[in-house]
């Protein structure tokens, strides 16, 4: 069976291409797609849209009804109908994630996962991001978490690149060197 991310990729790419050409653009589509992903990610909603007693029209009406107050443009509304007809609506969280990655890449932005041994102030995060942006030649969006097992320092993950300056990593390197 195919991996969900593999199945979701063509849908995300098609929506991305359609969004680039639309008047609303990528930002509005990304926001609405994130809302849809959060909605479909709820267990109650997942169970309801998976109910075999509902036909495709009922599923579409249900999703659109749950989004009252949110105006879905025509191509996003058609996208929901396409996912329902292809029985791929439950892939919405994966599609939204891949769409966001495509949007970030097009805008020259990358997500930076920063794990620190201690809580970091906004100024410290800003300073760290300013130091890292020239290295990656991208604008970074930081996401900071705290992990006290690092003992000290930070670990930064940007895409496939990991910069680990934590005390825990240094101790592991010393242990490996001594064992060799």
Automatic annotation (TrEMBL):
Q: Which domain of life is it from?
A: Bacteria
Q: How does it sit in the membrane?
A: Peripheral membrane protein
Q: What residue ranges are annotated as transmembrane?
A: none
- List the Gene3D superfamilies: N-terminal domain of the delta subunit of the F1F0-ATP synthase
Record's keyword annotation contains Ion transport: yes
Which keywords does UniProt give here?
Answer: ATP synthesis, Cell membrane, CF(1), Hydrogen ion transport, Ion transport, Membrane, Transport
- Which SUPFAM superfamilies would you find in this protein's record? N-terminal domain of the delta subunit of the F1F0-ATP synthase
Where does the record place it? Cell membrane; Membrane
**Pfam families documented for this protein:** OSCP
Q: What does this protein do?
A: This protein is part of the stalk that links CF(0) to CF(1). It either transmits conformational changes from CF(0) to CF(1) or is implicated in proton conduction. F(1)F(0) ATP synthase produces ATP from ADP in the presence of a proton or sodium gradient. F-type ATPases consist of two structural domains, F(1) containing the extramembraneous catalytic core and F(0) containing the membrane proton channel, linked together by a central stalk and a peripheral stalk. During catalysis, ATP synthesis in the catalytic domain of F(1) is coupled via a rotary mechanism of the central stalk subunits to proton translocation.
* Sequence similarity: Belongs to the ATPase delta chain family.
PANTHER family documented for this protein: ATP SYNTHASE DELTA CHAIN
Protein name per the record: ATP synthase subunit delta
């Amino acid at each position: 069976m195919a991996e969900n991310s593999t199945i979701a990729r063509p849908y995300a790419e098609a929506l991305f291409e359609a969004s680039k050409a639309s008047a609303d653009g990528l930002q509005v589509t990304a926001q609405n797609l994130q809302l849809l992903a959060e909605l479909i990610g709820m267990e109650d909603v997942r169970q309801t849209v998976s109910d075999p007693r509902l036909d495709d029209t009922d599923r579409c009406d249900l999703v659109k009804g749950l989004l009252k107050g949110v105006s879905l443009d025509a191509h996003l509304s058609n996208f929901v109908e396409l996912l329902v007809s292809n029985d791929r609506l439950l892939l919405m969280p994966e599609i939204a994630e891949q769409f966001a990655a495509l949007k970030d890449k097009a805008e020259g932005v990358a997500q930076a996962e920063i794990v620190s041994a201690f809580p970091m102030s906004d100024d410290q995060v800003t300073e760290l991001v300013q130091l890292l942006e020239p290295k990656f030649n991208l604008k970074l969006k930081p996401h900071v978490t705290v992990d006290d097992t690092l003992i000290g320092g930070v670990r930064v993950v940007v895409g496939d690149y990991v910069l680990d300056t934590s005390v825990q990593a240094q101790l592991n390197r010393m242990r490996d060197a001594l064992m060799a």
